[in-house]
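Service request form, structural biology core

Requester: graduate student, group of Dr. S.
Request type: structure prediction, single chain
Budget code: on file
Notes: please return the result as C-alpha cells.

Sequence provided:
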Amino acid sequence: MSPTKAPVQAGKELAGQALPTNQWWTSALTGPLSQPIWAHPLAVRADAGGIQVSSAPPAASANAVITPFVPAVTAGGALSGLKVVGYGAFHVVLRADLHGGGTVDVTLVQGSPVLYLRFTGTAPTLTLATGATLTGKGPTAHVDIAGQRWDVLAEAGTAWQPAGTRLTASGAGQGRVALARVPDGVDTAAWEAAIAGSATDPVTRTSARMAYDTAAGTVTQTLVTERASGRPGVWALLPHQQSGLVRDATLTTMAGTYGDALGPLSLVRSTALRIRVPMPGLLTTAPAVPLPDAARTAVVADLDQDLADPPGAGGSYFGLKELGRLATIAEVARSVGATAQQQAALARLRPQLVDWLTYSGGQDGRYFAYDKTWGGLIAVPAEFGSADYNDHHFQYGYLVRAAAVLAQADPGFLRDYGDTVDLVAREYSGALSGAGSGGAPSGATGGPAGSAGAGRGPGGFPAFRAFNAYLGHSAASGFAPFADGNNQESSSEAVAAWEAVTRWGLVRGNPDLATYGATHYALESATARRYWLGEGLTRPKGYAHTGTGIVWDAKIDYATFFDPRPESVQGIQLLPLTFGSLYRADPKAAAARSAELAKDVGGEPRIWADLFAADLAVADPAAARHRLGPRLPREDSTSRAMVRYWIEMLSAFGPPRTDVAADGPYGLAFGSADRTTMVAVNPTADRRTVTFRAGGKVIATVAVNPGQTVVRKP
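Core staff response, request fulfilled:
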C-alpha cells in the first residue's frame, strides 16, 4: 500500500531526504501550489495569482471558532510553480516561480508577525487588497487594510512606487522585502525599533530542544531563531506559551496582541523562548494498589469478562487498539495478582504483536512496509488514511505501549523483536528521538548534516513526524490538504503515544528515547489540557463549550470526524485509558466536564459511559464507582477491569498531586498535603531509587526492585 501523494514540490535542496509529513506546511510539498499555511499570526497561500498573505481575526459561533483566510497582500504575480527549499523546527522556505520570469523566496516562521521575501530576477512587487490606504515614503510603507495596519520594509536605497493597488520597489538592492502585520494596541516606537532592518535580516535557522528537570518536576522547551545580525526578533505567544514563559534579562515584553482561534497572542522580543510545563511524574508500569477483598474480587471478575469478549479485529487502528486492550488487561491482572488472567492476556498479545512485526510473504495480512517516497512505515492494512501518514502516532502508540508491557514480562520478546519496535517508535517520534530530549532540526535543509534518518532506506525517517515544536502538540493529517490547515482530534491518543515511547525507552534500556518520550509527553499533555479540554483558557465570546473536539491550525471545532454527539466530542479526549492518563489530574476540571456533559446530553451518557466514569473518579471516586454496572454503555476497546481498578486506585490514593515531583518517569504522588501517597514504579532491569520532592525538599526516597512497584506514605 503506497501513499496517494508524493513530495513533488520538494526542491533539489531536499533531494535524498526523508521529508516531514503532518506539518503545518506539508501541503506545500504535495501541491498543487499550497493550501493556506497558518503560522500564527500570519497565514500564506501559494495561489495561481501569487503569494497571498492573511492575518484576519477569528470569528466565534456556538460550535466553532474559525479564522478565515482573507488575503490582505499578494506578493509577486501569477505563479508557474512552487518548491519547498528549506525548513527548520518551526519555519519553512518556499520558492515561487513567476509566470513573467523570476522567483520569490518566502520565509515563513511560526510565531513571527514578519514575513521575509526575496525577489530574484524581477522587481519586488506587492498587490494590496481593495480599499487599502498607503502612507510613508522611501523604503518603508505603512498600509491600512480592513482595519489592520501592515508595514512594508525594503532595503535601504530603495523606494516604494504606488500604482493603484500595486507597490513596486525601485532602486538599488537585492530584492529583499519584509512584510509585517502590526499588532492591535501597538506601541509604535517600540514596534518600529523591533522590526527595523528586517528586510535584510531574515530568520535563517530555527531550532527546538527540551530539557527534563526530574528534581523540579518540569520540562523546559527552548525555541531559538537565528539571524545573520544576531538581533532579537518579535514573537507572538500562544496561550500555553504565555502561561509557561520563563522570563529573563534577554526577553522584553511588547505591547499589542493578535486575534487567534486558540486565544489572543501576546508579544515579546527575544532571540529565544523558554517555555516550562509541569512533569510531576509518570506511572510507567501498573502500580500494585492495596484493594479490599470485595474490590479485588470485582476487578478479577471484570478481567474474566474482558477476556471473554470477542477479540477486537481490524487493521492499523482497530487491530492495534486490540493490542493496547490486551496489554492493559495483562497489566491490571498482574497488579491484583491474577496470574492466570495475566498469562491469558499475554498469550493472546504475543502472537498478534509478532504478526504485526514480521512479514511472511504475499499472503501476510498484517505487517509494516517501508515507504521510500516519504521515508516512513505504513501498517498494512491501513485504516483512516494511514497510508497517507494520517494518525500514525495515534495508531502506532498502541503497539509500542503493548510491546513495552510484553517485553517487561517476556525478555525473549525484547531480545527478538526489540529492534523492530524501535523502528515503529522512531517512525512517529522522528529520527531525533534517538538523541534524548531533542526537539527538531535547525537549518535550511531539514536537519544537521549527517543527522540520523536524514537519508532513505530502512530506518531512514524524517527528523520529526507528528509533533510541532511551536504549537506544542502533534498533528494527525499526513498531507494537510485542508484550507484550515492541519488538525488533531484525539489529544489523549497523542499523549498516550508519548507515554508509549517513554515506557518503551525504559524497558529497552534506552535513556535517550525515554527522555524524548517524557519531554514530549509533558508538553503534549499541557496543550491537551489547555486547548482541547479548555483548562485555564477563556474561549471567545459566542463559543458555547469549555472543551473542543478538533483543534485545527485555523479553528477549533466542537465536532469529531465520526459522530456529532457530545459524548464523542468529549470522549475522544479520554481514550485510551492508561496509567499515563493521570495528566488529567485536576478534580475541579473533571467535575466540571462531567456536569457540562450531563447538561449537553440531558442526562447520563448514552455511549462510552465507562470512560466518563473513570474521568469523574479524579473528582468523586464514590460517584464513579456507583455508575459501574452491567448496563453501563462501554467503549469497546476499554477494559472493564481497568476502569474499575482506576476508580479504586483514586479512591484509595486520592487525585494526583502535581506539586510533588517524582524523580524521573518512575512514579507519581497522590492525595493532599496532609494525606500523601507516593507510588514508585520500576519497569527496568535494574534496581532504582526514586526520590519524591515537594517545594524542592526531599520528602521520601523509595528503593524499587526491577519490575516492581512500591506504595509509600511520607
